[in-house]
Design brief:
- It is built from six helices and nine strands.
- It is of the alpha+beta class.
- Strands 1, 2, 3, 4, 5, 6, 7, 8 and 9 form a nine-stranded antiparallel sheet that branches.
- The mean pLDDT is about 85.
């Protein structure tokens, strides 16, 4: 059975939220999955939200995705520190799944092998979305041609959607960060109703 997660929107600065969460986890000796929206391109501010924040009607907000049990512990800790720590939970929604789009192109066999491995053996509960494709092309007459030439001996390219289990999708998104040739789209969450 997959672990249950929720999206938590907190009013307060990102640095303060990160510091509070890290201190809370360390102080309690608790470990848990915490995915900050800014690290995974979850947060999308609409023009009205931007205007409200700039005029001071609403403060800065940040989004994080945490395990359901950890959310309850954090909410209780923030409640105990109300008035001391300027953080407030604005919204909590259960997260059913996560997804993102990715595209890549490489002319390196080494990088290609690593990408084939990552996209070919996805974590449990994670799958390729409809239309995902990966193509490998070997052109022997391109051997020895300069790196920026239009003809290359080897090329691996792919594009498509990765979707499924929250922890698995976030983990793959993070691992792909080290590859300059991979473009990752924003993380998209399938959420339930606000709590």
């Amino acid at each position: 059975m997959n672990k249950r997660y929720c999206e938590v929107t907190v009013e307060g600065s990102l640095d303060l939220v990160k510091g509070f969460v890290a201190g809370f986890l360390e102080g309690r000796g608790v470990s848990g999955d915490v995915f900050f929206g800014s690290d995974y391109h979850i947060e999308k501010e609409n023009p009205a939200g931007l205007l409200m924040r700039l005029t001071g009607i609403r403060g800065e907000t940040c989004t994080l995705v945490v395990g359901t049990g950890l959310h309850e512990l954090l909410a209780a800790a923030l409640e105990r520190r109300r008035g001391i720590v300027p953080l407030r939970i604005l919204r909590v929604r259960p997260v059913a799944s996560a997804a993102f789009d990715a595209s890549f192109r490489t002319y390196s066999r080494d990088v290609g092998a690593k990408l084939r491995e990552l996209f070919g053996s996805l974590p449990a509960g994670v799958s390729h979305g409809e239309g995902f494709e990966m193509q490998e092309k070997v052109t022997p007459e391109g051997k020895g041609v300069e790196a920026y030439a239009p003809l290359h001996e080897y090329e691996l390219r792919g594009r498509g959607r990765i979707e499924g289990d929250v922890k698995g999708v976030f983990g793959l998104y993070h691992r792909l960060e080290r590859f300059e040739v991979v473009e990752r789209g924003d993380m998209e969450l399938t959420c339930g109703e606000d709590r």
